[in-house]
Amino acid sequence: MGSQRWRTGHHYRPPLGALDLVVRPAGGLDYGRLASHQVEVHLHDVTVPLASLDDIIASKEAADRPKDRHAMPVLRALRARLGDS
Length: 85
Hints:
The chain is α+β, with helices and mostly antiparallel strands and 85 residues long. It has three helices and four strands.
């Protein structure tokens, strides 16, 4: 691959809010684990598989970037609010 740099994700800002598409999540999370814990969201006529909240939290903890640390209190509060479901 030489000097070619591969992106680990893409960030979009559509009119209804920010959207991150992560290609290589931090923390050693692989596709098999993410798929086994996925949450399905129905948007109009499309079912969209999403990473579970716990997997998102684990990835952000492993990445440990300033923006991830900033998001952690909100994500943990959401997890507490949702409970173990």
